[in-house]
Design a protein that fits this description.
Length: 260
Protein backbone atom coordinates (compact mmCIF):
# COMPACT_ATOMS: atom_id res chain seq x y z
CA UNK A 1 0.00 0.00 0.00
CA UNK A 2 1.37 3.40 -0.97
CA UNK A 3 1.98 5.70 1.96
CA UNK A 4 0.20 9.03 2.24
CA UNK A 5 2.16 12.26 2.39
CA UNK A 6 1.94 14.77 5.20
CA UNK A 7 -0.88 17.24 4.75
CA UNK A 8 0.93 20.13 6.44
CA UNK A 9 4.37 20.84 7.79
CA UNK A 10 6.94 23.57 7.30
CA UNK A 11 9.65 22.48 9.70
CA UNK A 12 12.73 20.56 8.67
CA UNK A 13 11.44 17.49 10.49
CA UNK A 14 8.14 17.65 8.64
CA UNK A 15 9.92 18.01 5.33
CA UNK A 16 12.02 14.96 6.15
CA UNK A 17 8.87 13.09 7.08
CA UNK A 18 7.22 14.00 3.78
CA UNK A 19 10.24 12.73 1.90
CA UNK A 20 10.45 9.55 3.95
CA UNK A 21 6.79 8.76 3.36
CA UNK A 22 7.45 9.06 -0.36
CA UNK A 23 10.75 7.17 -0.52
CA UNK A 24 11.03 4.77 2.46
CA UNK A 25 14.67 5.87 2.70
CA UNK A 26 16.32 4.06 5.65
CA UNK A 27 18.76 6.89 6.36
CA UNK A 28 15.89 9.35 6.57
CA UNK A 29 14.04 7.02 8.90
CA UNK A 30 17.02 6.89 11.23
CA UNK A 31 17.29 10.67 11.20
CA UNK A 32 13.59 10.97 11.99
CA UNK A 33 13.94 8.54 14.89
CA UNK A 34 16.55 10.85 16.39
CA UNK A 35 14.49 13.96 15.61
CA UNK A 36 11.41 12.56 17.33
CA UNK A 37 13.15 10.74 20.17
CA UNK A 38 11.95 13.50 22.50
CA UNK A 39 8.42 12.13 22.08
CA UNK A 40 9.53 8.78 23.48
CA UNK A 41 11.41 10.41 26.36
CA UNK A 42 8.46 12.62 27.28
CA UNK A 43 6.08 9.65 27.31
CA UNK A 44 8.53 7.66 29.46
CA UNK A 45 8.92 10.55 31.91
CA UNK A 46 5.15 10.83 32.29
CA UNK A 47 4.94 7.14 33.13
CA UNK A 48 7.91 7.01 35.49
CA UNK A 49 5.59 6.96 38.51
CA UNK A 50 4.43 3.43 37.68
CA UNK A 51 7.87 1.97 37.08
CA UNK A 52 9.14 -0.79 39.33
CA UNK A 53 12.60 -2.27 39.59
CA UNK A 54 11.64 -4.78 36.90
CA UNK A 55 10.80 -1.98 34.47
CA UNK A 56 13.62 0.52 34.10
CA UNK A 57 13.13 3.81 32.30
CA UNK A 58 15.70 2.72 29.71
CA UNK A 59 13.54 -0.34 28.97
CA UNK A 60 10.64 2.00 28.30
CA UNK A 61 12.81 4.11 26.00
CA UNK A 62 13.73 1.03 23.98
CA UNK A 63 10.09 -0.02 23.69
CA UNK A 64 9.14 3.52 22.78
CA UNK A 65 11.66 3.63 19.94
CA UNK A 66 10.14 0.46 18.49
CA UNK A 67 6.69 2.04 18.73
CA UNK A 68 8.02 5.22 17.10
CA UNK A 69 9.36 3.18 14.18
CA UNK A 70 5.93 1.63 13.76
CA UNK A 71 4.39 5.11 13.80
CA UNK A 72 6.66 6.17 10.93
CA UNK A 73 5.47 3.15 8.97
CA UNK A 74 1.75 3.61 9.64
CA UNK A 75 1.30 7.37 9.74
CA UNK A 76 -1.27 8.76 7.33
CA UNK A 77 -1.01 12.53 7.08
CA UNK A 78 -4.30 12.85 5.20
CA UNK A 79 -6.27 12.03 8.37
CA UNK A 80 -5.53 15.45 9.86
CA UNK A 81 -3.49 14.71 12.99
CA UNK A 82 0.04 16.03 13.29
CA UNK A 83 2.66 13.30 13.37
CA UNK A 84 3.81 14.48 16.80
CA UNK A 85 0.33 14.03 18.25
CA UNK A 86 -0.26 10.71 16.54
CA UNK A 87 3.14 9.38 17.64
CA UNK A 88 2.81 10.59 21.23
CA UNK A 89 -0.54 8.86 21.72
CA UNK A 90 0.64 5.64 20.06
CA UNK A 91 4.00 5.55 21.85
CA UNK A 92 2.40 6.28 25.21
CA UNK A 93 -0.15 3.54 24.61
CA UNK A 94 2.59 1.07 23.69
CA UNK A 95 4.49 1.88 26.89
CA UNK A 96 1.37 1.41 29.02
CA UNK A 97 0.78 -1.98 27.34
CA UNK A 98 4.41 -2.93 28.00
CA UNK A 99 4.16 -2.04 31.69
CA UNK A 100 0.88 -3.93 32.00
CA UNK A 101 2.40 -7.04 30.44
CA UNK A 102 5.12 -7.12 33.10
CA UNK A 103 2.31 -8.17 35.48
CA UNK A 104 4.14 -6.89 38.57
CA UNK A 105 0.96 -5.69 40.30
CA UNK A 106 -0.18 -8.40 42.79
CA UNK A 107 -3.73 -9.67 42.48
CA UNK A 108 -4.48 -8.50 46.02
CA UNK A 109 -3.43 -4.97 45.09
CA UNK A 110 -5.63 -4.98 42.01
CA UNK A 111 -8.59 -6.16 44.10
CA UNK A 112 -7.88 -3.56 46.76
CA UNK A 113 -7.77 -0.82 44.15
CA UNK A 114 -11.19 -1.81 42.84
CA UNK A 115 -12.61 -1.87 46.38
CA UNK A 116 -11.32 1.61 47.18
CA UNK A 117 -12.51 2.82 43.76
CA UNK A 118 -15.98 1.48 44.49
CA UNK A 119 -16.02 2.95 47.99
CA UNK A 120 -15.11 6.39 46.64
CA UNK A 121 -17.91 6.23 44.07
CA UNK A 122 -20.51 5.00 46.57
CA UNK A 123 -19.71 7.70 49.13
CA UNK A 124 -19.52 10.36 46.42
CA UNK A 125 -22.95 9.36 45.12
CA UNK A 126 -24.35 9.38 48.64
CA UNK A 127 -22.85 12.77 49.59
CA UNK A 128 -23.16 14.30 46.10
CA UNK A 129 -19.58 15.59 46.44
CA UNK A 130 -16.01 14.35 46.69
CA UNK A 131 -15.68 12.32 49.91
CA UNK A 132 -12.94 12.82 52.47
CA UNK A 133 -10.54 10.02 53.33
CA UNK A 134 -12.23 9.73 56.74
CA UNK A 135 -15.62 9.16 55.09
CA UNK A 136 -14.22 6.53 52.74
CA UNK A 137 -12.47 4.81 55.63
CA UNK A 138 -15.73 4.69 57.63
CA UNK A 139 -17.54 3.30 54.59
CA UNK A 140 -14.93 0.56 54.29
CA UNK A 141 -15.00 0.01 58.06
CA UNK A 142 -11.29 0.50 58.50
CA UNK A 143 -9.12 3.07 60.30
CA UNK A 144 -8.13 6.02 58.12
CA UNK A 145 -4.48 5.19 58.85
CA UNK A 146 -5.00 1.73 57.35
CA UNK A 147 -6.66 3.25 54.29
CA UNK A 148 -3.68 5.59 53.88
CA UNK A 149 -1.32 2.61 54.04
CA UNK A 150 -3.39 0.69 51.52
CA UNK A 151 -3.44 3.66 49.16
CA UNK A 152 0.34 3.88 49.33
CA UNK A 153 0.61 0.17 48.48
CA UNK A 154 -1.71 0.52 45.50
CA UNK A 155 0.00 3.70 44.24
CA UNK A 156 1.39 2.16 41.07
CA UNK A 157 -1.80 0.26 40.31
CA UNK A 158 -3.92 3.41 40.61
CA UNK A 159 -1.58 5.43 38.38
CA UNK A 160 -1.52 2.72 35.72
CA UNK A 161 -5.31 2.50 35.81
CA UNK A 162 -5.56 6.29 35.46
CA UNK A 163 -3.14 6.24 32.54
CA UNK A 164 -5.34 3.63 30.86
CA UNK A 165 -8.36 5.93 31.19
CA UNK A 166 -6.40 8.86 29.77
CA UNK A 167 -5.16 6.72 26.90
CA UNK A 168 -8.66 5.53 26.06
CA UNK A 169 -10.03 9.06 26.09
CA UNK A 170 -7.14 10.40 24.03
CA UNK A 171 -7.58 7.64 21.45
CA UNK A 172 -11.32 8.32 21.30
CA UNK A 173 -10.73 12.04 20.86
CA UNK A 174 -8.21 11.39 18.11
CA UNK A 175 -10.77 9.36 16.20
CA UNK A 176 -13.62 11.81 16.74
CA UNK A 177 -11.89 15.11 16.00
CA UNK A 178 -12.34 16.67 12.54
CA UNK A 179 -9.57 16.35 9.99
CA UNK A 180 -8.64 20.01 10.35
CA UNK A 181 -7.55 19.67 13.96
CA UNK A 182 -4.29 21.29 15.00
CA UNK A 183 -2.89 19.53 18.06
CA UNK A 184 0.01 19.76 20.49
CA UNK A 185 1.82 17.02 22.41
CA UNK A 186 2.21 19.05 25.58
CA UNK A 187 0.86 17.07 28.59
CA UNK A 188 -1.93 19.56 29.25
CA UNK A 189 -3.06 19.30 25.62
CA UNK A 190 -2.75 15.53 25.20
CA UNK A 191 -6.50 15.32 25.92
CA UNK A 192 -7.15 17.68 23.07
CA UNK A 193 -10.92 17.43 23.01
CA UNK A 194 -12.25 20.55 24.77
CA UNK A 195 -14.90 18.69 26.72
CA UNK A 196 -12.39 16.26 28.17
CA UNK A 197 -10.08 19.12 29.14
CA UNK A 198 -13.00 20.80 30.88
CA UNK A 199 -13.90 17.66 32.85
CA UNK A 200 -10.28 17.14 33.85
CA UNK A 201 -9.90 20.79 34.90
CA UNK A 202 -13.05 20.58 37.01
CA UNK A 203 -11.78 17.37 38.60
CA UNK A 204 -8.46 19.03 39.47
CA UNK A 205 -10.39 21.89 41.08
CA UNK A 206 -11.94 19.40 43.52
CA UNK A 207 -8.52 18.38 44.86
CA UNK A 208 -7.13 19.75 48.08
CA UNK A 209 -4.44 22.41 47.88
CA UNK A 210 -1.68 19.90 48.67
CA UNK A 211 -3.01 17.39 46.14
CA UNK A 212 -3.09 20.06 43.42
CA UNK A 213 0.46 21.05 44.30
CA UNK A 214 1.66 17.45 43.98
CA UNK A 215 -0.10 17.07 40.61
CA UNK A 216 1.42 20.33 39.38
CA UNK A 217 4.96 19.49 40.48
CA UNK A 218 4.77 15.90 39.26
CA UNK A 219 3.10 16.28 35.85
CA UNK A 220 3.92 19.84 34.84
CA UNK A 221 7.27 20.47 36.51
CA UNK A 222 8.15 16.76 36.06
CA UNK A 223 9.72 16.46 39.51
CA UNK A 224 10.25 13.11 41.21
CA UNK A 225 8.75 12.21 44.59
CA UNK A 226 11.97 12.99 46.46
CA UNK A 227 12.16 16.45 44.87
CA UNK A 228 8.50 17.17 45.61
CA UNK A 229 9.00 16.07 49.22
CA UNK A 230 11.83 18.56 49.54
CA UNK A 231 9.71 21.38 48.08
CA UNK A 232 6.75 20.61 50.35
CA UNK A 233 8.80 19.85 53.45
CA UNK A 234 7.23 16.43 53.97
CA UNK A 235 8.35 12.83 53.66
CA UNK A 236 8.47 11.03 50.34
CA UNK A 237 5.84 8.54 51.52
CA UNK A 238 3.45 11.42 52.22
CA UNK A 239 3.95 12.70 48.68
CA UNK A 240 3.16 9.21 47.41
CA UNK A 241 -0.06 9.16 49.44
CA UNK A 242 -1.15 12.60 48.24
CA UNK A 243 -0.39 11.67 44.65
CA UNK A 244 -2.35 8.44 44.83
CA UNK A 245 -5.36 10.11 46.46
CA UNK A 246 -5.35 12.84 43.82
CA UNK A 247 -5.07 10.37 40.94
CA UNK A 248 -7.84 8.22 42.40
CA UNK A 249 -10.18 11.24 42.53
CA UNK A 250 -9.29 12.27 38.96
CA UNK A 251 -9.72 8.73 37.68
CA UNK A 252 -13.20 8.45 39.19
CA UNK A 253 -14.25 11.76 37.61
CA UNK A 254 -12.99 10.68 34.18
CA UNK A 255 -14.57 7.24 34.55
CA UNK A 256 -17.90 8.89 35.36
CA UNK A 257 -17.53 11.07 32.25
CA UNK A 258 -16.55 8.14 30.05
CA UNK A 259 -19.55 6.13 31.23
CA UNK A 260 -21.86 9.07 30.49
Amino acid sequence: MEKQTVSTGKTEEHQKLEEYLRTDDVDLRNELLMDYLYIVRRAAVQLRGILKSSVEEEDLINQGVLALMECLERYDGTRGAKFETYAFIRVRGALIDYIRKQDWIPHRTRRLGKQIDQAYMEVANEKLREPSMEEVARHMEMPVEKLDQNIEVMNHSVILSFENVLQDLAAFSMKSEPASMDLSIRPEASLFQKEIRRVLAEAIDTLTEKERLVITLYYYEELKYAQIAEVMGVGESRVCQLHTKAILKLKIKLEEYRKG
